[in-house]
UniProtKB/TrEMBL annotation:
Keywords associated with the record: Pyridoxal phosphate
UniProt cross-references to InterPro entries, sorted A to Z: Ala_racemase_N, PLP-binding_barrel, PyrdxlP_homeostasis
Organism of this sequence: Paenibacillus swuensis
Protein name in the entry: Pyridoxal phosphate homeostasis protein
Family membership noted in the UniProt record: Belongs to the pyridoxal phosphate-binding protein YggS/PROSC family.
Matches recorded under Gene3D superfamilies: Alanine racemase
Pfam families in the cross-refs: Ala_racemase_N
Domain Alanine racemase N-terminal stretches: 11-226
GO MF entry, a single one: pyridoxal phosphate binding
Needed cofactors: pyridoxal 5'-phosphate
Function text: Pyridoxal 5'-phosphate (PLP)-binding protein, which is involved in PLP homeostasis.
Protein backbone atom coordinates (compact mmCIF):
# COMPACT_ATOMS: atom_id res chain seq x y z
CA UNK A 1 0.00 0.00 0.00
CA UNK A 2 1.14 3.55 -0.60
CA UNK A 3 0.62 6.42 1.81
CA UNK A 4 -2.74 7.47 0.38
CA UNK A 5 -4.05 3.91 0.62
CA UNK A 6 -2.79 3.50 4.16
CA UNK A 7 -4.39 6.78 5.20
CA UNK A 8 -7.69 5.69 3.70
CA UNK A 9 -7.52 2.29 5.37
CA UNK A 10 -6.80 3.77 8.79
CA UNK A 11 -9.45 6.44 8.31
CA UNK A 12 -12.09 3.80 7.56
CA UNK A 13 -11.13 1.78 10.61
CA UNK A 14 -11.23 4.81 12.88
CA UNK A 15 -14.64 5.78 11.55
CA UNK A 16 -15.96 2.26 12.15
CA UNK A 17 -14.60 2.25 15.69
CA UNK A 18 -16.29 5.62 16.26
CA UNK A 19 -19.57 4.24 14.94
CA UNK A 20 -19.34 1.19 17.21
CA UNK A 21 -18.71 3.32 20.28
CA UNK A 22 -20.89 6.35 19.58
CA UNK A 23 -17.98 8.76 19.20
CA UNK A 24 -17.43 11.62 16.79
CA UNK A 25 -14.48 11.32 14.44
CA UNK A 26 -13.59 14.93 15.27
CA UNK A 27 -12.72 13.97 18.86
CA UNK A 28 -9.70 12.02 17.67
CA UNK A 29 -6.42 13.27 16.25
CA UNK A 30 -3.54 11.35 14.75
CA UNK A 31 0.16 11.63 15.42
CA UNK A 32 1.98 10.19 12.40
CA UNK A 33 4.95 8.41 13.95
CA UNK A 34 7.84 8.72 11.50
CA UNK A 35 10.63 7.12 13.52
CA UNK A 36 10.84 4.16 11.14
CA UNK A 37 10.95 6.18 7.92
CA UNK A 38 13.21 8.58 6.05
CA UNK A 39 13.08 12.33 5.77
CA UNK A 40 11.50 11.97 2.34
CA UNK A 41 8.70 9.78 3.65
CA UNK A 42 8.20 12.18 6.55
CA UNK A 43 7.93 15.10 4.16
CA UNK A 44 5.43 13.16 2.08
CA UNK A 45 3.32 12.51 5.18
CA UNK A 46 3.26 16.19 6.13
CA UNK A 47 2.38 17.18 2.59
CA UNK A 48 -0.43 14.63 2.56
CA UNK A 49 -1.98 16.45 5.49
CA UNK A 50 -0.58 14.51 8.44
CA UNK A 51 0.22 17.64 10.38
CA UNK A 52 1.24 16.05 13.65
CA UNK A 53 4.57 14.26 13.44
CA UNK A 54 5.87 12.00 16.23
CA UNK A 55 9.46 10.98 16.90
CA UNK A 56 11.02 9.29 19.90
CA UNK A 57 14.68 10.28 19.73
CA UNK A 58 16.08 13.75 19.13
CA UNK A 59 19.14 12.29 17.40
CA UNK A 60 16.90 10.72 14.75
CA UNK A 61 14.43 13.59 14.53
CA UNK A 62 16.92 16.42 14.16
CA UNK A 63 17.53 16.24 10.41
CA UNK A 64 13.81 15.95 9.76
CA UNK A 65 13.00 18.82 12.06
CA UNK A 66 15.59 21.03 10.44
CA UNK A 67 14.25 20.26 6.96
CA UNK A 68 10.51 20.44 7.52
CA UNK A 69 10.00 21.62 11.08
CA UNK A 70 7.66 24.42 10.09
CA UNK A 71 5.31 22.15 8.16
CA UNK A 72 3.89 20.25 11.13
CA UNK A 73 3.42 20.16 14.88
CA UNK A 74 5.99 17.95 16.56
CA UNK A 75 5.35 15.36 19.23
CA UNK A 76 8.04 13.79 21.39
CA UNK A 77 6.98 10.24 22.25
CA UNK A 78 9.82 8.35 23.82
CA UNK A 79 11.76 8.37 27.02
CA UNK A 80 13.19 11.87 27.28
CA UNK A 81 16.62 12.21 28.82
CA UNK A 82 17.05 15.36 30.86
CA UNK A 83 20.10 16.40 28.83
CA UNK A 84 18.00 16.39 25.64
CA UNK A 85 15.38 18.76 27.02
CA UNK A 86 17.17 21.82 25.67
CA UNK A 87 16.86 20.45 22.14
CA UNK A 88 13.23 19.50 22.46
CA UNK A 89 11.70 22.57 24.13
CA UNK A 90 10.84 25.19 21.55
CA UNK A 91 10.84 22.60 18.75
CA UNK A 92 8.34 20.01 19.94
CA UNK A 93 4.86 21.21 20.79
CA UNK A 94 3.85 18.13 22.74
CA UNK A 95 5.72 15.77 25.09
CA UNK A 96 3.96 12.43 25.55
CA UNK A 97 6.42 10.99 28.03
CA UNK A 98 6.46 13.14 31.17
CA UNK A 99 7.30 10.51 33.76
CA UNK A 100 9.35 12.07 36.56
CA UNK A 101 9.67 15.26 38.54
CA UNK A 102 13.25 15.97 37.47
CA UNK A 103 12.03 16.03 33.88
CA UNK A 104 9.10 18.31 34.73
CA UNK A 105 11.49 20.70 36.43
CA UNK A 106 13.89 20.77 33.49
CA UNK A 107 11.11 21.22 30.92
CA UNK A 108 9.73 24.11 32.94
CA UNK A 109 13.14 25.72 33.28
CA UNK A 110 13.95 25.54 29.58
CA UNK A 111 10.47 26.69 28.59
CA UNK A 112 10.70 29.67 30.91
CA UNK A 113 14.12 30.59 29.52
CA UNK A 114 12.70 31.00 26.02
CA UNK A 115 9.32 32.24 27.20
CA UNK A 116 7.26 29.38 25.90
CA UNK A 117 5.07 26.61 27.30
CA UNK A 118 5.05 22.87 26.70
CA UNK A 119 2.00 20.67 26.29
CA UNK A 120 2.55 17.52 28.33
CA UNK A 121 0.99 14.12 28.68
CA UNK A 122 1.88 12.25 31.85
CA UNK A 123 2.93 8.74 30.91
CA UNK A 124 1.34 6.04 33.01
CA UNK A 125 2.38 2.40 33.06
CA UNK A 126 -1.13 1.02 33.36
CA UNK A 127 -0.21 -2.55 32.46
CA UNK A 128 2.60 -2.70 35.02
CA UNK A 129 5.02 -4.27 32.52
CA UNK A 130 8.58 -4.05 33.80
CA UNK A 131 9.92 -2.88 30.46
CA UNK A 132 7.66 0.15 30.20
CA UNK A 133 8.37 3.67 31.35
CA UNK A 134 5.75 5.68 33.16
CA UNK A 135 4.33 6.25 36.60
CA UNK A 136 2.35 3.59 38.34
CA UNK A 137 -1.35 4.43 38.69
CA UNK A 138 -0.78 4.82 42.45
CA UNK A 139 1.84 7.51 41.91
CA UNK A 140 -0.18 9.55 39.47
CA UNK A 141 -2.19 11.94 41.57
CA UNK A 142 0.70 13.01 43.83
CA UNK A 143 2.83 13.53 40.74
CA UNK A 144 0.19 15.62 38.99
CA UNK A 145 -0.18 17.72 42.11
CA UNK A 146 3.56 18.36 42.28
CA UNK A 147 3.69 19.27 38.60
CA UNK A 148 1.23 22.09 39.21
CA UNK A 149 4.10 24.23 40.54
CA UNK A 150 5.61 24.29 37.04
CA UNK A 151 3.44 26.82 35.29
CA UNK A 152 5.19 26.45 31.92
CA UNK A 153 3.82 22.92 31.63
CA UNK A 154 0.31 22.53 30.28
CA UNK A 155 -0.81 19.19 31.64
CA UNK A 156 -3.20 18.26 28.90
CA UNK A 157 -3.66 14.54 29.40
CA UNK A 158 -2.38 11.05 30.06
CA UNK A 159 -0.47 8.68 27.81
CA UNK A 160 0.03 4.94 27.94
CA UNK A 161 1.45 2.12 25.86
CA UNK A 162 -0.34 -1.21 25.96
CA UNK A 163 1.69 -4.41 25.80
CA UNK A 164 1.85 -5.93 22.34
CA UNK A 165 -0.97 -8.46 22.11
CA UNK A 166 -1.60 -10.91 19.29
CA UNK A 167 -5.28 -10.31 19.99
CA UNK A 168 -5.78 -6.50 20.20
CA UNK A 169 -8.95 -6.95 22.24
CA UNK A 170 -6.70 -7.94 25.14
CA UNK A 171 -5.48 -4.33 25.40
CA UNK A 172 -8.92 -3.02 26.31
CA UNK A 173 -8.44 -3.03 30.11
CA UNK A 174 -5.27 -0.95 29.74
CA UNK A 175 -7.03 1.75 27.73
CA UNK A 176 -10.13 1.69 29.90
CA UNK A 177 -7.80 1.97 32.89
CA UNK A 178 -6.14 5.11 31.55
CA UNK A 179 -9.49 6.73 30.89
CA UNK A 180 -10.61 5.93 34.43
CA UNK A 181 -7.41 7.43 35.87
CA UNK A 182 -8.00 10.62 33.91
CA UNK A 183 -11.60 10.85 35.04
CA UNK A 184 -10.67 10.24 38.68
CA UNK A 185 -7.92 12.84 38.53
CA UNK A 186 -10.31 15.39 37.07
CA UNK A 187 -12.90 14.62 39.73
CA UNK A 188 -10.36 14.91 42.54
CA UNK A 189 -9.99 18.67 42.18
CA UNK A 190 -6.18 18.44 42.30
CA UNK A 191 -5.71 20.00 38.90
CA UNK A 192 -6.24 23.65 38.10
CA UNK A 193 -7.76 22.63 34.80
CA UNK A 194 -9.20 19.28 33.82
CA UNK A 195 -7.14 17.04 31.59
CA UNK A 196 -9.04 16.21 28.46
CA UNK A 197 -6.63 14.20 26.37
CA UNK A 198 -5.80 10.50 26.21
CA UNK A 199 -2.79 9.56 24.07
CA UNK A 200 -3.26 5.85 23.49
CA UNK A 201 -3.44 3.38 20.63
CA UNK A 202 -0.72 2.32 18.18
CA UNK A 203 -0.76 0.35 14.94
CA UNK A 204 -1.77 -2.90 16.56
CA UNK A 205 -4.46 -1.67 18.91
CA UNK A 206 -5.77 1.75 17.82
CA UNK A 207 -9.29 0.57 17.09
CA UNK A 208 -9.73 -0.63 20.66
CA UNK A 209 -8.18 2.63 21.89
CA UNK A 210 -10.74 4.64 19.91
CA UNK A 211 -13.55 2.62 21.46
CA UNK A 212 -12.12 3.34 24.93
CA UNK A 213 -11.85 7.09 24.48
CA UNK A 214 -8.48 7.89 22.87
CA UNK A 215 -8.16 11.49 21.71
CA UNK A 216 -4.68 11.08 20.18
CA UNK A 217 -3.61 7.95 18.31
CA UNK A 218 0.11 7.43 17.72
CA UNK A 219 0.39 5.58 14.42
CA UNK A 220 3.64 4.50 12.82
CA UNK A 221 3.82 1.28 10.84
CA UNK A 222 0.21 1.07 9.75
CA UNK A 223 0.07 4.69 8.57
CA UNK A 224 3.46 5.91 7.39
CA UNK A 225 5.04 2.48 7.07
CA UNK A 226 8.29 1.02 8.22
CA UNK A 227 11.46 1.04 6.14
CA UNK A 228 14.06 -1.67 6.56
CA UNK A 229 17.41 -0.89 8.16
C1 LIG B 1 6.99 3.73 17.85
C2 LIG B 1 5.94 4.27 18.72
C3 LIG B 1 4.62 4.37 18.26
C4 LIG B 1 4.14 3.87 16.91
O1 LIG B 1 4.33 2.50 16.77
P1 LIG B 1 3.56 1.65 15.65
O2 LIG B 1 3.26 0.35 16.32
O3 LIG B 1 4.50 1.50 14.51
O4 LIG B 1 2.32 2.36 15.28
C5 LIG B 1 3.68 4.92 19.12
N1 LIG B 1 4.03 5.36 20.36
C6 LIG B 1 5.29 5.28 20.82
C7 LIG B 1 5.58 5.78 22.19
C8 LIG B 1 6.28 4.74 20.02
O5 LIG B 1 7.53 4.67 20.51
Amino acid sequence: MNLQERMKHVENRIQQACDRSGRERGEIRIVAVTKYVSLEATREAAQAGLLHIGENRWQDAQAKWEAIGGQASWHFLGHLQTNKVKEVVGRFHYIHSLDRLSLAKELHKKAEAIDTAVNCFIQVNVSGEESKYGLSPEELSAFAEQCAQYDRLNLIGLMTMAPYEAEPEATRPVFAGLRKLRDELNASGILKQPMLELSMGMSNDYEVAVEEGATWLRLGTILVGKEEG
